[in-house]
């Protein structure tokens, strides 16, 4: 059921995805071709905001802040997973893997490597601030229009 809380959560997490994506780009090697990196992260933000955060709006201010942290953490996890699968598929098309299980295991290695690369203090602070802000904004929208 569409609600204002779901819509606001989705839009806010899409904005967080844009912000974090632009912060991540300088951390990657210069030769990185980002392709649809930003667009995919926006879609992940919209989906996580709609389905995960939006379904939990309207439970109070503390729950709203917790909901913001849940949404941001899930955004990062799903974003890393989707981008890791994309990178694995790119490498698989170049016949880098001997079999499908090796390719599936490589998804987790790629994700762990990228998680280590982007785990900086600036991104951590931005994620905490965004989590609190998104949680409170979603809660306000849910109370006002929900």
What is the topology?
Layout: H1 4-24, H2 37-53, H3 61-92, H4 100-118, H5 121-145
Helix pairs in contact: 1-2, 1-5, 2-3, 3-4, 3-5
- Tell me, what's the shape? elongated
Topology as a string of helices (H) and strands (E)? HHHHH
Report low-confidence residues grouped into runs of 5 or more: none
Helix percentage: over 70%
Largest sheet: none
Indicate the radius of gyration in whole angstroms.
17 Å
Task: Provide a brief overview of the structure.
This protein has 146 residues and is mainly alpha-helical. 78% of the residues lie in helices and 0% in strands. The longest helix has 32 residues, at 61-92.
Question: Overview of this structure, please?
Answer:
This protein is an all-alpha fold. Helices cover 78% and strands 0% of the residues. The model has no long low-confidence stretch (mean pLDDT 96).
Keywords:
5 helices, 146 residues, single chain, mainly alpha
